[in-house]
Automatic annotation (TrEMBL), chains A, B:
Listed Pfam families: NUDIX, WHD_NrtR
Stretches of the chain forming a coiled coil according to its record: none
UniProt KW keywords: Hydrolase
Record protein name field: NUDIX hydrolase
Organism this protein belongs to: Candidatus Woesebacteria bacterium GW2011_GWA2_44_33
UniProt record similarity statement: Belongs to the Nudix hydrolase family.
Length: 224, 224
DNA sequence: GGCGTAAGTGTATAATGGACACATGAAGGA
DNA sequence: TCCTTCATGTGTCCATTATACACTTACGCC
């Protein structure tokens, strides 16, 4: 494998990373899109991303692009899939390694201030027409996220530090597009031992205050 | 995202595909390795693979490399992960998109004749020292294969056209490194409806002949 | 025809998943 | 202060699924 003697003699494709940044807001699962101001697809919405530099790993590139374009840093990033259709970029051969990341509504609102480029969250089932094959990439990522809900605690990235069980349940329901039984949901979630009651309760609401919970540790793990 | 005006002005990494070709033979899960006869890692064993051409997709590249180096064509190929550590190739920046494929023992024996390059199957837990980060890639692939056994019929690629339920069970046991209960295994497998009795039986053996089964269709599907 | 060998089969128990309804605690207004 | 409003919080029964476990059957061979 590899070549004989000199790898530089081969034509080389360009390599980019593109990031699906998920959040849940206003009862919808959303992803971040940025407005392109260059050809091709000028003025189209696209996933945040860009070229991989020669001295950085793919994970580093994804982290860098995400923080450059959004100001959000050190999120949990997971490699999704690599798309390499020769015609996916009309200019030249571009292979893109895609990642997904999750951010809580509250955290995003804070960190997004001061970003120059136009960037906006869109509900995943009301996406505008996207540049390149980004529509396909988005669908793939949403599907992956749905699957992962079933056997990991990946959802922790979408929630703030403390939250009620009802909040948590809503996030599941929004992503899975189903409604869940409250008692069964709580039983199952608590039986994993991954979240613990903080002891504090919601205050200032006109009904019984809910217990606030938090994740025991902030690492994504497989739960079964 | 992307660049301004001219993508060709950026340094570009080389991109390869590497393929983990699994088989089960002599009671062990094995992968195909080829002997390198170029630097770096001359005389080391490595995964079959090579550079992605400018006019082919990643899937096509994986298929091509696999058939060039082994003579086996049109196997089920699944993209695994993309490895892009800047130092993984000592020559220059090389990003590799990895795939896994499965071939049955019997099919391989037929098609492998006439291959020039030295190629050999090695048990996955007795691998020699491999070139580049191929040891890590192999581990990742084995793990993925194990996981997929649980919720897909991916194993069909490892078996010939017809097989006994005992054969099938052995393949599961070898890959998962556990022993399974015969009755429970048969119940579960048959309840998926994905395999059917062919009506024929093994002949010429000194004990009760086993029914031969085959997969109803040859597509990999999710079973739950 | 008796032996060796792997095939083939059922049941009882435990664990899991899903359906389902009512009392509780706080705020706010009468 | 008492009554209303509203989301919280909790337990049981049933169905399904997973697991443990042992003997009879069919064939070749000697």
């Amino acid at each position: 494998m590899k070549d004989k003697y000199d790898v530089t003699k081969y034509d080389r494709p360009s390599v980019t990373v593109d990031v699906l940044l998920f959040t849940v807001e206003a009862g919808e699962l959303k992803i971040l899109l940025v407005k392109r101001n260059e050809t091709p697809f000028e003025d189209s919405w696209a996933l945040p991303g860009g070229f991989v530099r020669m001295d950085e790993s793919l994970d580093e590139a994804a982290n860098r692009e995400l923080s450059e374009e959004t100001g959000v840093k050190n999120l949990y990033l997971e490699q999704l899939y690599t798309f390499g259709n020769p015609k996916r970029d009309p200019r030249t051969r571009v292979i893109t390694v895609t990642y997904m990341a999750l951010v809580s509504n509250t955290e995003w609102k804070f960190k997004s201030t001061g970003d120059a480029k136009e960037a906006k969250f869109f509900a995943v089932d009301k996406l505008p027409k996207l540049a390149f094959d980004h529509t396909e990439i988005s669908k793939y990522g949403v599907q992956r996220l749905r699957n992962k809900l079933g056997y990991t605690n990946i959802v922790l990235g979408l929630l703030p530090g403390s939250f009620t069980l009802t909040d948590l349940q809503k996030v599941y329901e929004i992503i899975l597009k189903t409604s869940l039984d409250k008692r069964n949901f709580r039983k199952k979630i608590l039986s994993t031992g991954l979240i613990v009651a903080s002891g504090k309760k919601l205050e200032g609401i006109a009904h019984r205050p809910a217990m606030l919970y938090c994740f025991k540790n902030k690492k994504v793990v497989i739960t079964d």
